[in-house]
């Protein structure tokens, strides 16, 4: 119980820190925020339920007024803005990523990559695109065009999430709760 | 850690948080129901006047919080000028700015603890499903403490990377960061259990 709580809180903080740490340049020159990497890791490391709870905890703090989203954004305004769909998708993305790792009994690296892609890219962008389409008054196809430039970086982040999860499974096997 | 609450005290700071949230929810629904661009600009002007009435510094901070919206404004501008329907573009843009500015108004005039109290109150019905309020409160406190701790560790890792490599720190510091952090989380869990647990 205590361990679940501290791990959930820790990963909520990790999402924030990955958004705040200045430019971890994934591709040189293109400053990609690592925040969605944090979402993926919540799922792949903590598992579906705990991962989603960690993300919800993070979002609760953002809504309460802490500037924890990448670029120092926060407060209620971000939930009224065009990218609200992504925020709604965050916990579901973590849940799906976690579910894949929990259920698909292949090596942790492969399962994490699949989970990160399915949750952190597919699910996340579905919600994000629906959100932008509603908030910006565009059709789904038009809104999807706004999301396309981010897919390459997201694939890279999925690879990172898989590598980090596999590394954690080696270094601290007891802490990878999605496989315990 | 800094919050987004404005340090400039305004009359709005003294309104109860719950009431402000309800008003903003209603206001947002109105904003999204506005029929055309004249109404959109009107709503935006009204909110801008509200910000200015609360002080110039306050309004300037409020404007800064809208910065993430500019790329979307650019998209809307290009799109609707190309389609030659500027009216619709102005409505969509003013709607977007008005809704976000209105929501930010609550964040800027409500202290973190007041907002937390509202969230806690909203969560009380969930106690029936095993989500105990005191556990939520503890988790929130833990996150607020963990963020600066993790930032510290990240800075240390980046510095030790710099000391050893001419390249800039890359994503490979995330794994050691996570390992360090997980150990910390385990220690905190042990400490909690040693003090009687949850």
TrEMBL record, chain A:
Arranged from A to Z, the UniProt key words for this protein are: Cell membrane, Membrane, Transmembrane, Transmembrane helix, Transport
Give the protein name, as stated in the record: Biotin transporter
Say if the entry is tagged with keyword Membrane: yes
What InterPro entries does the entry give?
BioY (IPR003784)
Q: Which family does it belong to?
A: Belongs to the BioY family.
Q: What is the superkingdom listed in this entry's lineage?
A: Bacteria
Membrane topology per record: Multi-pass membrane protein
Automatic annotation (TrEMBL), chain B:
Domain of life of the organism in this record?
Bacteria
Going by the UniProt record, its keywords in alphabetical order are: Membrane, Transmembrane, Transmembrane helix
Q: Which residues cross the membrane?
A: 12-34, 41-59, 65-83, 90-109, 129-151
Regarding the membrane, this protein is recorded as: Multi-pass membrane protein
Keyword Transmembrane listed:
yes
The reply to whether Transmembrane helix figures as a keyword in the UniProt entry is yes
* Coiled-coil portions: none
* Localization, UniProt: Membrane
Q: Which GO terms describe its cellular component?
A: plasma membrane
Q: Which family does it belong to?
A: Belongs to the CbiQ family.
Q: What is this protein called?
A: ABC transporter permease
